[in-house]
Amino acid sequence: MSNLWVMETQNLYQMEQNLSIDTLMVAKEELREDEATRNNALVQMRLWLKQNNKIIYSRSDDSFLLRFLRAKKFSLPLAQEALERYLLLRQTFGRQFGFYQFDTTCPRLEELLKLGYIFAVPKRDKNGRRIIITRPGVFNPSKWCNTEMTRMHAITYETLLEDQENQIRGFVHYTDAAGMCLQQLTLFTPREAIRIVKNGEQTIPMRHKEIYGVNVPLSLKFALDFGLSLISEKIRSRVKIFNSIKESHAYIDQSLLPKEYGGEMEMSKMIGKLIFNNTIILQSTFYLFKQMIDLWKQELLEKREQILKSEKMSVNEDMFSEGARQGRVSALTNQSHHHMVGSFRQLTVD
């Protein structure tokens, strides 16, 4: 049986018809993507998948493969390495930290979704990018575990990456750290945090274009400094931390944000109180962004079946080192290069 799983997908001509001229121009200028490059790269990627005995079963539709090619600016070796690492870590390291069972109809995940722990705002910014809002302060570590936290992130990213415009345009991250506490830092050990962050940056095929943080408690500044030390200089240069939400409006279109952050879309009324970290916190700090979240939930449901089908993908774990299975960042470097086909381009990966 072939290790390629070809899902129903639009062909490349239809893809170009659906993407705007501006988006295709961004792909050309920033990713070196044109029709000839794309067609050749897809052929080479499928040939590599067929020849790679490490991979038992993988999606091979255009949209899925283009995630990795675009994230690596069409460098075949880098895209192949990222895809192989992605498949392995979903199956091994990811099992430990929630990178499976991406079903938002699960009652516990639904509750986190309603709280607005992480969601994408419905409109795109002036650069055509989706804005991902994260509110770690609503995540009660006494109620939820670390796998539920990482699963919510994975569901969000997987859903957004099914859209090819997002693959090309990239993402803006907006984190409101109000309400965060020291207890949340105990969800992961330092080693786990390092492996999650570094594997996430190198393996999840997302273009992180802007990263903003607001309301960071002074008591957690050491944790912020530690987190920034884990990411690459390229990504770190795109991070901006603000003392107030108002300060962030100089960099992000506030009309796109929830009303609580200066935007236009209405939120639900304040409801009761939350008991969190042995402290009563007024719900005014934790608005449920009902209108935005309802739209995001609808988007998640539209992609749900596609996302769940991706869990069929698998690799032959015995063909990887123990370090690779554990998620050590250096373990896969150069290991899969003997399987690679096609030419290598010298480039800066974005």
Mean pLDDT: 83
Q: Give the number of DSSP strands.
A: 10
* Straight-line N-to-C gap: 35 Å
Largest sheet: 5 strands, mixed
| Helix and strand sequence | EHHHEHHHHEEHHEHEHHEHEEHEH
Low-confidence stretches: 267-288, 334-340, 342-350
Q: Please list the strands of the largest sheet in the order they lie side by side.
A: 3-4-5-6-7
Principal-axes shape call: globular
Percentage of residues assigned to helices:
40-55%
Task: Please describe what this structure looks like.
There is one protein chain. The protein has 350 residues and is an alpha/beta fold. It has helices at 12-18, 21-31, 35-51, 62-71, 76-91, 93-96, 107-115, 146-161, 164-169, 190-203, 221-230, 233-236, 245-248, 290-309, 322-325; strands at 4-5, 55-59, 118-124, 130-134, 171-176, 208-214, 239-242, 273-276, 279-282, 314-315. The strands form three sheets. It has a five-stranded mixed β-sheet with strand order 3-4-5-6-7. A three-stranded mixed β-sheet has the order 1-2-10. Strands 8-9 form a two-stranded antiparallel sheet. β5, α10 and β6 form a beta-alpha-beta unit. α4 crosses α5 (76-91). Residues 267-288, 334-340 and 342-350 have low confidence and may be disordered.
Helix/strand layout:
Layout: E1 4-5, H1 12-18, H2 21-31, H3 35-51, E2 55-59, H4 62-71, H5 76-91, H6 93-96, H7 107-115, E3 118-124, E4 130-134, H8 146-161, H9 164-169, E5 171-176, H10 190-203, E6 208-214, H11 221-230, H12 233-236, E7 239-242, H13 245-248, E8 273-276, E9 279-282, H14 290-309, E10 314-315, H15 322-325
Parallel strand pairs: 1-2, 4-5, 5-6, 6-7
Antiparallel strand pairs: 2-10, 3-4, 8-9
Helix pairs in contact: 3-4, 4-5, 8-14
